[in-house]
Design goal:
Length: about 400
């Protein structure tokens, strides 16, 4: 996978810079052409000669050295992958906000190649809201993030922030180059909770944040899909995503009627209201008129309609937020709504589902179940998309098996 690939290895100023030497060596051993770029901070931790000796070409440290007047565009345009290990809080912030302060951040902004960043810093810094927000922003733009590990940090502290193991960094680089398994496919993802109006100011809503749906949509973009997101949220989407903003179940239904016929994969992560006020009032209901009686009516089950009218080439995925009998309930939804996969979670469990940054799910398919234990929603998204790819490839093998040898 790495053979012949041109990789810009950015090294920024943290103690983990010494581990980047091992990353460099592994990339070169795997046949990659590695162009190392060090920030001035990185040179306080390791010598540039070390990288020049190990990499495929001498290290670059500045925009202004050497004969190339535009090293950032030369390197950025020529790269198959830009890998930053370690990535400091400063480099993450500069990249997230488009600040081209040195050669490395210029390359990050100038490249159209996939980018993998491997943050490493003290736990307090990693957990700072500014760093968290920058990570989320980069993730939402399709940047691959290799999260740091927990362990011993500089100065003897213990906590999350240690650069991922070099083998894992190289594996992430391979994935970033290989993971184009949704190339050419159109994926529709719904996200967020619908809001059903009672009057001009009040709504019936639910606790869905939309984070899981958006994480899935970004994972699909990273893997080469054309993605349409039908969302009720304000969460960001990468520029490559077609975004349709909706509020109610009825608006979501209209949007889906337009986009589902051309979809290869439909992922209904949205929490669609099951009931809505039958008669929404135009103005505001004044409390002087007494407690109003709100009569509810059922909404149409959008997923069930999609499942029952599906085209054979389509893969249809539903979600099930449960508080008990998770697998039994999910399996009955799988069958009733004619789905390929149900992503089920027990929303009563700690750290799971609504409003959390983490999730734990059971993937329920016709052939069996698979548990994805508690992890970030981005990591759950990887597992869900992996499962969809598996289901699609087993369907293809079945179809191939049905072709008679005499045909
Ligand atoms: N869904 C939908 N339209 C609705 C309600 C739900 O498309 N009106 C979709 C959700 O997007 C989700 C799945 O159906 O993918 C889960 O629905 P859920 O409400 O949990 O299941 P129900 O069939 O309503 O069953 P129950 O209320 O018994 O849990």
């Amino acid at each position: 996978m790495l053979e012949g690939k041109r990789i810009v290895l950015g090294v920024s100023g943290g103690i983990a810079a010494y581990k980047a030497i091992e990353v460099c060596r592994r990339l070169v051993d795997a046949g990659a052409h590695v162009s190392p770029v060090m920030t001035s901070g990185a040179q306080h931790f390791v010598g540039s000669t070390t990288f020049s000796a190990l990499a495929s070409e001498p290290v670059r440290t500045s925009l202004w050295e050497g004969s190339d007047p535009i090293p950032h565009t030369t390197l950025g345009q020529g790269a198959d992958l830009v890998l930053v290990a370690p990535a400091t809080a400063r480099v993450l912030a500069a990249y997230a906000h488009g600040l081209s302060t040195d050669l490395l951040t210029n390359i990050l902004i100038a490249t159209r190649a996939p980018v993998v960043v491997c943050p490493a810093m003290h736990t307090e810094m990693w957990e700072h809201p500014a760093v968290e927000a920058n990570i989320e922003l980069l993730r939402s733009r399709g940047v691959h993030i290799v999260e740091p590990e927990a362990g011993r940090l500089a100065g003897g502290d213990i906590g999350k922030g240690r650069l991922a193991d070099p083998a894992d960094v190289v594996a992430a680089a391979e994935r970033a180059l290989a993971d184009r398994d949704l190339e050419g496919l159109h994926v529709v993802v719904t996200a967020g909770g619908t809001r059903e109006p009672i009057d001009a100011v009040r709504v019936i809503a639910n606790r869905s944040s939309g984070k899981q749906g958006h994480a899935i949509s970004e994972e699909c973009v990273r893997r080469g899909a054309n993605v349409t997101v039908v969302t009720t949220t304000e969460l960001p989407t990468s520029p490559a995503v077609e975004r349709i903003q909706v509020e109610t179940a009825s608006e979501m239904q209209t949007a889906l009627n337009n986009v589902v016929p051309r979809a290869d994969i439909v992922i209904m992560a949205a929490a669609v209201a099951d009931f809505r006020p039958r008669d929404s009032v135009d103005g505001k209901i004044k409390k002087a008129g007494g407690v109003p009686e709100v009569i509810l009516e059922p909404t149409p089950d959008l997923l069930e309609a999609i499942g029952r009218n599906r085209h054979p080439r389509q893969t249809i995925v539903g979600f099930a937020a449960e508080t008990c009998d998770v697998v039994t309930n999910a399996r009955s939804k799988l069958e009733r709504k004619c789905l390929d996969l149900v992503v089920a979670n027990d929303v009563s469990a700690e750290g799971v589902g609504f409003a959390h940054g983490t999730n734990a799910v059971t993937l329920v398919a016709a052939v069996g179940e698979r548990d994805l234990t508690l992890r970030s929603k981005a990591e759950i998204a990887v597992g869900v998309v992996d499962e969809i790819v598996r289901i699609r490839s087993s369907m293809r093998s079945l179809d191939a098996g049905r072709v008679s040898p005499t045909n």
